[in-house]
Model the fold of this input.
Amino acid sequence: MNDNKYDLHVTNYVLDGFEHLMTDIEIYALKKSMTFSIEHEDGSNEDNVVTTLVKGKSLESKVQELLADGMKSFRFKTARRILNEHESEVLQNQCNQCHRLPRTSKAKQCNWCGNSWRE
Ligand SMILES: [Zn+2]
Done:
């Protein structure tokens, strides 16, 4: 386990589970390219859509601005914004042993340290 992998997990956890905390423009930018842009936790990633998107005529300039540094950077920044502004909600299901976030917001077991909080 390394911190980069955990950072990526937090990004995916927040963006997968807390869509209601995103702004409309963030959702638009993410959805437009979601199929191609997700970096997977096994190390593979598909980030090449950004070039195509930025060239697209139909995108608002704001979306282009958000994606200017690439999808990976945009996903990271969006997740960090949500985490900063809604910390208690996002961290509600964090492990009480290692304080990391489990696989999903509904998980009852920590996939990082093995701690379980099933009833
Ligand atoms: Zn844990």
About this structure: The first helix runs from residue 3 to 17. The chain is about 50% helix and 0% strand.
